[in-house]
Amino acid sequence: MITQSLPCRQKCACLLLTRQTGQVLPNPMIKHLAVKLKSLVLSTGLLLVSSGFVQAQESGAVAHGGEREFYMAFIPGDWHILPRQKQSERYYGEWIPKNQQAENWQDMIILQIFPGQGDESLQDSKRPEKALDRIAAAYKKNCSAMAATDALNDQVNGYWTGFRLIYCAQDLSGSTGEISLFRVTIGRNATYIIQRAFRVPGFELGQKPDPVSAQRLKEAFGIIRQGWICQEKTDRSCPENWAGTFELITSLNPAVYSFDANGKASD
């Protein structure tokens, strides 16, 4: 079972879920969200990701799932990773823009790794959707009202991946809402989840204008789609110019690591 510690601390098939009444109500807004997610895919060149940032060694993050399997994610250069104090916190990384503070962030990228929760056969195409369903269920429990698209699934470098857009009208523990794009990728040795979260004032589902503009969502999708898994000494080999970095990571426990444009680790 995948659990999580995401900013909002949170099975939607085109449905509106409300915690207060327990009702599951059809809602035209969810169809609208589904169209929005598909438009993001089309506007950024389908689901297939680019590994160009890896070859160029731009700043990013690497999650080591064990057995020399790595998930490589793009992190904008003007973002920084938040401090982590405990070994258990190494299984995730949280980044915010350098002009924002941890206490009142508005934009965040979260990369999580779940070692031992992979698919050795790489044949189960439903695994990403199942993980995304558990994420949506967590949001349902922690939001006054929430909406989520169906999962969009694809294969990248031979690994199954899924995307979902989730709206949380208001976190029950506070007064803020959240809009998040999720991507789940299933490796042989681990499950990897990357999230681009927007913290916004509480809102009504379906309100106009949308709390987050279409352009900002497009930019967010452009970030999380630039991620992929590679595994050294296999037919899904990793970029040679990161060999030294991977060698360092392999000697350590499975964890999420942040790197600058020169391949230098930061924490």
Structural class call reads alpha+beta
Which spans have pLDDT < 50 for at least 5 consecutive residues?
A: 1-30, 44-57
Mean pLDDT: 78
Estimate the helix proportion, in percent.
10-25%
The biggest beta sheet, please?
10 strands, antiparallel
Topology order in helix (H) and strand (E) letters:
EEHHEEEEEHEEEEEHEHEE
Beta-sheet strand percentage?
Answer: 25-35%
Rg computed from alpha carbons, rounded to a whole number of angstroms: 18 Å
How many extended strands? 15
How far is the first residue's CA from the last residue's CA?
Answer: 28 Å
Could you say which overall geometry the principal axes of the C-alpha atoms support? globular
Tally of separate helices: 5
Structural account:
The protein is α+β, with helices and mostly antiparallel strands and 267 residues long. 21% of the residues lie in helices and 34% in strands. The protein is built from 5 helices and 15 strands. Strands 1, 2, 5, 6, 7, 8, 9, 10, 11 and 12 form a 10-stranded antiparallel beta sheet that branches. Helix 1 (28-43) packs across helix 4. Residues 1-30 and 44-57 have low confidence and may be disordered.
List the helices and strands and how they pair.
Blueprint: E1 15-18, E2 24-26, H1 28-43, H2 52-56, E3 60-66, E4 69-74, E5 79-81, E6 92-97, E7 107-115, H3 127-142, E8 145-148, E9 152-156, E10 159-168, E11 176-186, E12 190-201, H4 214-224, E13 227-231, H5 243-250, E14 256-259, E15 265-266
Antiparallel strand pairs: 1-2, 1-8, 3-4, 3-14, 4-13, 5-6, 6-7, 7-12, 8-10, 9-10, 10-11, 11-12, 14-15
Helix pairs in contact: 1-4
